[in-house]
Every structure is written in structure tokens, then in C-alpha cells.
Amino acid sequence: MPRPAWSLYAYQLIEPDEQLDLFACREVRVHLVARQLRLGGYADRTLCGGLLPAQPRWRALEKVWLRDRRLCPACLAAFEAQRQGLCSNWADG
Q1: Quick one: which of 61, 65, 71, 46 has its CA closest to 8?
Q2: CB atoms within 10 A of CB 35
Q3: What is the enclosing helix (H) or strand (E) of 76?
Q4: Is residue 32 within 8 Å of residue 25, measured between CB atoms?
Q5: What are the pLDDT digits (tens) for 12-42?
Q6: Residue 47 reports pLDDT greater than 70
Q7: Which residues are CB-neighbours of 15 under 8 A, at least 6 positions away?
Q8: Considering the domain boundaries, does residue 87 fall inside one?
Q9: Which of 44, 66, 54, 63 is nearest to 20 (CA)?
Q10: CA Rg, the chain, in Å?
Q11: Using the 8-state DSSP alphabet, how is residue 67 labeled?
């Protein structure tokens, strides 16, 4: 079975603003979001499963962000698992 193509373009970054949302991460963290919705998943969640802020500030994901200390460790772990093909963003499971 061919391995799905992977690229940084498949993800976006959300940055916290001056007012943290009540339902989102309470820490000043940067989170990753998949551009392609996961089948059977939630459209309003980050890679770590946290809720998106009410008005997220979106940024393109660049390699330099992967070394930023503010990057959510759980988002980074999910990102690395998807990059290595251990789990897919296309199907549930």
C-alpha cells in the first residue's frame, strides 16, 4: 500500500492572542491543526484534541515552528506520528 504524501502544507498553526478562549488551552501555547478534516473526527479540534479558540489566528506551518518552545508537546507528538505514517489524518483510528 503506498504511503500517503506528507508535507508541512497539510497543517496550520494557531497562535494564542491576548485573550485566551474559555474552552481552549489556558497556557500560552502554539497548536497545530490539520487542513484536511479527519473522517469521523471533529472539525473544531487541534491535533492534541483541544478545542479551537473562538477566533483563531491562523499561520502557515514552517519548519522553524517545530522547534519553538511554545509548541504544544501533544500536537508535536501527533504531528510526528502522522509524518512517520503511524497514524493517518484521513481516517479514524
Answers
A1: 61
A2: 10
A3: helix 73-83
A4: no
A5: 998 876 666 555 566 778 899 888 765 556 6
A6: yes
A7: 30, 57, 59
A8: no
A9: 54
A10: 13
A11: G
Nearest to 16 by CA among 6, 2, 26, 1: 26
In a domain, 17, yes or no: yes
93 falls within a domain = no
What domain count does the chain have? Answer: 1
33 residue type, one letter: V
- Within 10 Å of residue 45's Cβ, how many Cβ atoms? 16
Polymer length of the chain? 93
User: What is the extent of the structural domain holding 58?
Assistant: 6-82
Rounded-to-integer distance, Cα 26 and Cα 53, Å: 10
Is the per-residue pLDDT at 85 higher than 70? yes
